[in-house]
Amino acid sequence: MDERKMDENEWRYHGEGNKSLVVSHTESCVVLRFLKFPPNRNKTSEEIYRHLQNIVDFGKNVMKEFFGENYVHYGEVVHLPLDFVKQLCLKIQSERPEFRCNKDLDTLSGYAMCLPNLTRLQTYHFVEHRPILCVEIKPKCGFIPFSSNVTQELKHKVCRYCMHQHLKVASGKWKQISKYCPLDLFSGNKQRMHFALTSLLQEAQNNLKIFKNGELIYGCKDDQDSVADWTELAHHLKPFFFPSNGLVSGPHCTRTIIKELIHVITMILLSSTDTCRAGDMKTVPVSQGRSYCEASPFSKELVRNGKNKLESSGLPKGCLLYKTLQAQMLDMLDIEGLYPLYNRVEQYLEEFPEERSTLQIDGPYNEAFYKRLLDLSTEDDGTLAYALTKVQQYRVAMTAKDCSIMIALSPCQQDECSEQRPVVPASKSRFTFSVSVLDLDLKPYESIPHQYKLDGKIVNYFLKNVQAKDDPLMSNRFKENEDCTLVLHKV
What protein family is recorded (predicted)? Predict the structure, then answer.
């Protein structure tokens, strides 16, 4: 790494998740990502290096093939002076949210991942001196399970995200139900996409964030911090969309600016700026599943108006949403069909634990690993190979379901916009843009039992506390199924 970047004062806290923390350089467009561990759970330097290299290899050899070269930035593993790491850790400790401080930053190995700062434009550095807007969207799962392994008919009608919302609000994670439904965003229908993006802006939760010049200006800073001040957001956005200040202030101005933002995001999500091998692979037809979710407010309103069938325009094959959906649909069996196959692999590993590396459970994530994912057969021949393929496909699908899409925008003048640069027009301005995918770490093999239990918990809560209230027959059925005591009397 460049010695000029070895001053800890030139770095700032950028954010963190459950397993890593990110700092960004104030002058250049790079970030460093450090691993985190619970106290007294430190790994060796070699283990940390291998873990980080696996993340890089998975992005490079697997997810790049699904999403495309321009969308995936896998970075590289770098080794830093330990003194620099320790000083940096001390500097940012006070900026970390309290609920994140239950895990310690790795300060002993010196290894970190060096990545581009995805809140900045990734392709055209000539505009770096201009203001940059970045919208981060975590779209979640864009299809309803079509597998015959599903035991509850409800899962064929209501999407996972909409069901999970009710459980999250009941558990206190969020204060209110979001109107956002992933199937609306993935529909390709502009009206439904606009509704989905508006819903995200109304109730961002952790599914939408907006940055200006790398600084978070809208969205949740943590699980409880829900921000929905459109007036303040419009104040930040106005110079981007109406540079001549031609609009009067007030609610009408705010709605107009938000509408412009939604229009631009929609156009970019439907555009294509890259090609990839996965676009040529045999894909799972979206038509196998229902194209709308019965819990979506958009769907309910149309049904209420007598329209029983929603129009689905479909996604252009080259756009990032289409590629994301295809990767998500590697989950062809649903967790209910996958879990017995996971148990088959587990049983084999219990008997032959030394085979874990041969099965590539923890890597290496190379060309051979990627090619195994292309087998879309769903006929179980009872073999370990079949079970392993489905388990690995499920892990990749779960990664795609939890990824984030980063859209960076910067204004450009009419004479600067050439055919070589992707440009999206707005009413009073034009933007050059770059689109990237974030959060592409392969989901852990060990998380599958948790996902199985969580799935049952989500569905059961929705059945008993949401659908039962809407359906009197369902409510009576649950009353009949409640535990009761049989008392026998002498006669």
Answer: Belongs to the IPK1 type 2 family.
In Å, how far are 172, 173, 298, 448, 452 from 18, measured between CA atoms?
A: 19, 16, 33, 17, 20
Structure tokens at 223: 């699980």
Element (H, E) at 396: helix 384-401
Phi–psi pair at 50, nearest 5 degrees: -65, -40
Q: Would you say 56 and 77 are in contact if contact means Cβ atoms under 8 Å apart?
A: yes
- In terms of Cα–Cα distance, which of 193, 52, 59, 182 is closest to 113? 52
Could you give phi then psi for residue 218, rounded to 5 degrees? Answer: -155, 135
Number of CB atoms found within 10 A of residue 203's CB: 18
More confident residue, 280 or 442: 442
Same domain, 140 and 191: yes
Domain-embedded: residue 483 = no
Q: Domains in the chain: how many in total?
A: 2
Secondary structure E strands in 427-477: 430-438
Task: Provide the CA 8 distance to its chain's centre, in angstroms.
Answer: 30
Helix (H, G, I), strand (E, B) or coil at 432: strand
309 vs 176: CA distance, rounded Å: 28
Contact 33, 115 (CB under 8 A): yes
Same domain, 202 and 59: no
pLDDT in tens, 249-279: 555 688 999 999 999 999 999 998 665 555 4
Entry pTM? 0.89
Contact between 266 and 194 under an 8 Å Cβ cutoff? The reply is: yes
DSSP letter for 434, please. Answer: E
Asked whether residue 48 is assigned to any structural domain, the reply reads: yes
Whether 112 and 139 share a structural domain:
no
What's the CATH number where 78 sits? 3.30.200.110
Domain termination residue (choose one: 117, 141, 175)? 117
Within a domain: 127: no
